[in-house]
Amino acid sequence: MNDQPAVTPDGTGRGDRAAAFARYVEPEIAVLYRVALTLAGQRADADDLVQEALIRAYRAVDRFDGAHPRAWLLTILRNTHRNRLRIRVASPLHENEQDTGLLDRSDPARSVQLVDVDGLTYAEAAEALGVPRGTVMSRLHRARARIRLVAAGLVPHRSRP
Amino acid sequence: MTMMSLSELARCYRTSRVLQRYLDGESDELTATRVAEHLKECRRCGLQETTYRAIKRALRGHDVDELALRRLRSLNRSLAETGGADPP
Known about the structure:
By secondary structure, chain A is mostly helical.
């Protein structure tokens, strides 16, 4: 990882930073938005989440080494999402809501959504959820096996509370 | 009904353990070749493959809000151009 900030002739480094940002981030915006929808659940929240993640990415792009931009951006998106949830859970406005569940990353449906719906690889889904790749694999396996049984009418569909 | 041999059962078991990884394009080349060969000759595992492919097809992709994407791309460009400075 390159920790040296890029410096342009105007001394700000802005030109290189802008070029790096355009090169690494622009092609990933659609993926980021899809993943944000999966993590946040609501379009308005997903919008805000991606905006905040883009601003964080812009500030950090000088330190990014250029390898695996999608993984780098997914990590930023995940951390941004977690911070937003922590603030939300701590807010007195939400103290009576079931917000404790918002920090739950163990929902197998999210793995299915990230891989099958959003088109991420196992490694990318693991990055987005902040869990090991093997965990994504086992959750996918379980969730799809369940979908298969539900589709075959062998087990009843269990809706969320 | 024909009885499956123990070695056939073992192949089915090994295939079922890696089938989803194979369908996701996440298995190594050797495993992928072995699974593909087994699926050609095993009806039971072939049915599992068909089902999981159908599940993946049914779930694949969803329309994203084009307007939201345009807004985010525009924010991205403005960050790159202005350096994230607040407007005057």
